[in-house]
Request: fold
Amino acid sequence: MKSKVAKIIGLLFLTLVGCFIFRTAILRAFSNYLIVETNCDNMEYAFVLSGGAYDRGNEGASLYHEGKVKHIICTGENQSPDIMALGIDTLESDLTKLQLIHMGVPEVAISLIKEGTSTLEESEIILNFCMAKGLDSILIISSKFHTRRVHQVFTKKFSEEGIYVCIQGAPSSLYDEVNWWKSEYGLIALNNEYLKQCYYLINY
Reply:
């Protein structure tokens, strides 16, 4: 009995030592799992999802200036609590548009869909738009940690309608996705995304 207990304790100790030695690779694996991106060029429409106007707007602007997208559509009807505290009635889609313009994207190249309060809702709204326009390929821009959930929600649904979805992740301005555990913002972002992964797994 004592020998068995000693073996278990020894195994646990070796496991802990191994986790410590390879801690960086293990921690990066958590973030790598969440990031799913595809390289795309010459896309007619890019949709910037709501939930991060500054970072996602910056990424949309970069892709536009690189000539990879021609027209950017900002989605979302939620309002930022911080903006509401200022007494300003502005939707997340409006904020993304303002950031795009600030980054030099001409207003004529930007459209708004002031609908959608979640990734799932936005996917339905964007799918209806694509079918109405007869589009066969689109680009979705969201935060890097959000891209796996975007892939899970969008890809199969759109492929069934003959629409290819390209996904581009916007890097965070608050933390480094590669070393997310070194920042409180990175820790919160990764934790929140895994919680949302569980929520979507259970409910959808």
About this structure: Helices lie at 2-21, 23-34, 53-65, 81-85, 92-102, 119-133, 147-159, 184-203. The two ends are 47 Å apart (CA to CA). The mean pLDDT is 92.
